[in-house]
Design a protein that fits this description.
alpha/beta; Aminopeptidase; six-stranded mixed β-sheet; three-stranded mixed β-sheet; globular
Length: 317
């Protein structure tokens, strides 16, 4: 059994806000009501004039209470904590620890509104949702955007991998694809660009192998593309490591104890992508109205090198 010191336990148990201060409690509550099929209170509240912040939704993997069929053939209520390492590290625990620190880094940058789909340590009851919890993550982002009047959303789904083969190891970032199967054409080039920027920043973390950008039909990503097709929303699943691999499990243990390093790298990847997006918008404006029907913004963002950034923090600071 892994043990943590008193200070580490206290930090892990400390309360964390559900959203950044730029989001009102009513706006957050209405987005949560929307995915539960409940009536909203106070209608849709718009963000203040001139507020062009990107909404970032931190989606912590698993942590869901649901019905599952047991070995006896009967359905039982279980808590889905995702993959579990040989030493007992769960996927939801890893996501919760990294997500807490990621929120702190992103909250300090006034480029973003930031919200959790579920809070660290929280268990979401599938029976309360009006849809699958996987689809609800994407629909929560859309509901939150409507509450804020935001035009752009970034969905970061924090996960960990597992495999029947203990030899599989490393990190990868997954984007949605057109059609079925795996390794197809990405649905949204902007999401691919975000994945590239994230990997450029995460690469080298504790010696993890970079497995690159992967494409397949993850239900969360598929729902995100269907909920808001053809706009500036991006969605990725960050599979940080393989809990089934002994070497990666050591990295997972390190990360659970010291999540700030991986969280900061993810935050830098988001910032790197946002800077590239802003540069692409300037390019379109500079081209003038006659040229703006040329390459899509997504293509421009994808073409900008993910050169990385040195730090994360307040915009302009």
């Amino acid at each position: 059994m892994r043990e943590m010191g008193d200070e580490a336990l206290a930090r892990a148990a400390a309360p964390v806000p559900a959203h950044s201060q730029s989001i009102s409690p009513q706006q957050y509550a209405n987005a949560q009501r929307a995915i539960r099929g409940q009536e909203l209170t106070g209608g849709f509240m718009k963000a203040s004039a001139g507020d062009d912040r990107t909404l970032v939704v931190i989606s912590l993997g698993h942590g869901v209470e649901k019905q599952a069929r047991g070995e006896d053939g009967q359905k039982h209520t279980v808590i889905d904590r995702g993959a579990v390492s040989a030493g007992g590290i769960t996927e939801s625990e890893l996501a919760d620890r990294v997500g807490r620190k990621l929120f702190e880094y992103l909250e300090n940058d006034d480029r973003y509104h930031v919200a959790f789909f579920r809070m660290p340590g929280e268990i979401v009851d599938q029976k309360e949702l009006a849809m699958s919890h996987l689809e609800a993550r994407a629909h929560f982002m859309e509901a939150m955007k409507r509450q804020l009047g935001a035009s752009r959303g970034v969905l970061l789904d924090l996960q960990a991998n597992s495999s029947a083969s203990p030899r599989d190891h490393g990190m990868e970032v997954v984007v949605d694809q057109i059609g079925r199967g795996r390794d197809g054409t990405a649905t949204n080039p902007n999401s691919t660009a975000l994945a590239q920027h994230l990997l450029a920043e995460i690469e080298g973390y504790q010696g993890l192998r970079n497995r690159g950008v992967k494409t397949y039909n993850a239900r969360t990503l598929d729902a995100a593309e269907k909920a808001a097709p053809g706009n500036d929303d991006v969605a990725v699943v960050i599979e940080s490591l393989f809990l089934s691999n002994p070497g990666d499990e050591k990295v997972a243990d390190y990360t659970v104890r010291r999540p700030q390093e991986l969280a900061e790298r993810i935050a830098r990847g988001v910032l790197s992508y946002e800077l590239a997006r802003e540069e692409a918008e300037k390019t379109l404006i500079a081209q003038g109205p006659d040229d703006q029907a040329k390459p899509s913004q997504g293509t421009l963002v994808a073409d900008i090198s993910a050169s990385g950034v040195s730090s994360v923090g307040p915009k302009g600071g």
